[in-house]
Amino acid sequence: VEFSLQEIMSLLSLYGGQFNNQQEIRVNSPFWILDIPSEEMARGLMKRTVCAKSIFELWGHGRSAGELYTSLKSYPVEKMLPYLQADSTYKIRIHTFNKTLTQAEKIKKIDALEFLPFSGKVNLKSPEHVFWILEDYGMEPNNVPEEPLDVYFGRWIADGQRELIESYSVKKRHFIGNTSMDACLSFIMANHGRVKPNDVVFDPFVGTGGLLISSAHFGAYVYGTDIDYNTVHGLGKASRKNQKWRGPDENIRANLRQYGLESFYLDALVSDSSKPIWRKGVLFDAIITDPPYGIREATRRTGSQKEAVKSSERSTENHIFISSSYHLSDIFFDLLKFAAEYLVMGGRLVYWLPIYRPEYTEEIIPRHPCLKLISNCEQMLSSHTSRRLITMEKVKEFKDQDHNSYLLDGQYMPYKGHNSFREKYFSGVTKRIAKEEKDNQK
């Protein structure tokens, strides 16, 4: 529900709408009643969403069939008539959540709507207008009520983009890595980031480019950096089962080409996200990324052996970069500082934050004075760990004094706990394995 709600809210604001307190969002129901200003906006929303299945113009709603019929009779006839003309065709469909009806039961419910002023002809194959009866039988499959908890009737407007989840599936993708993002989550992130055509979207931990694909699908130009030379250039060992080495054309560009999106691919650089490489004034419309947590991908940044020798007298010649540890807390604060400086005003930062659930409080979400927290959605990873999809929006121009503002007033200390996420994650795994072994011995 969290992911769906925030996706709908983001898309409504993208199309000029506003989510108000009168929207009827119920956690224990798959049906939501939204107040959307126009059908055009509703169609625009459905061209983007991967969470919502369909949208309808609501003509009637009730807690029972009787209440539904009363509601329909009070719906303005002038709003119905354009879709009920004698020269039009239509059909009525029924969807029941958590219950299966027989064909005879469905026909009976459809026949009960004969009081509506339908003048057109029924066409079951290719009707001009489709109407739906939607019935909600609750969320408990072992306790299904005889009668529905809610009944809705409305005119179908459009379907969402659920098919993108399958057509962009990682299983079918040309180039993948150990942590390639699930297609559904990639599109959700692009929608939370309000990515639109001609935007420039950046991923500082680009990996195999999975997050670039969803943004490019929505018409944005995409760019990325990563510290791993082999990943950026598609070299080294393959992540796919039964394949030892990556092929000659396994790279980020090939992934975009696979979906006909190569024209939106700007480039990817081998670069350390902790080091400044951008000139002032380089701006991105959105930053959408999944930083490494230190579980399947290491948290690294460039360093040198000379950094250990704190002497300003030594020459910088033969400066050989090596990999050094990069604490999670530093990763997130470098990311927030970068977003604060290089996002356009109103641009969004969308990223995943790993959490050790027993110690979680909202205070450990990294903040920055230039960025406003928009949403915080949890995805469970295990009984004791999860990751949160954080969406932030730039609301204040970046100034030099904002560069290290997170260090002020002792704000930094609560976030240091992120650095031990790897140890806490594997401690939980170890405990679970030990418990399973103990149970098997009984």
From TrEMBL:
One GO cellular component term noted in the UniProt record for this chain: cytoplasm
Occurrences of domain Ribosomal RNA large subunit methyltransferase K/L-like methyltransferase (ranges): 172-302
Enzyme Commission number: 2.1.1.214
Family: Belongs to the class I-like SAM-binding methyltransferase superfamily. TRM11 methyltransferase family.
PANTHER family assigned to the protein according to its UniProt record, in alphabetical order: RNA METHYLASE-RELATED, TRNA (GUANINE(10)-N2)-METHYLTRANSFERASE HOMOLOG
Function: Catalytic subunit of the TRMT11-TRM112 methyltransferase complex, that specifically mediates the S-adenosyl-L-methionine-dependent N(2)-methylation of guanosine nucleotide at position 10 (m2G10) in tRNAs. This is one of the major tRNA (guanine-N(2))-methyltransferases.
Protein name per the record: tRNA (guanine(10)-N(2))-methyltransferase TRMT11
Gene behind the chain: Trmt11
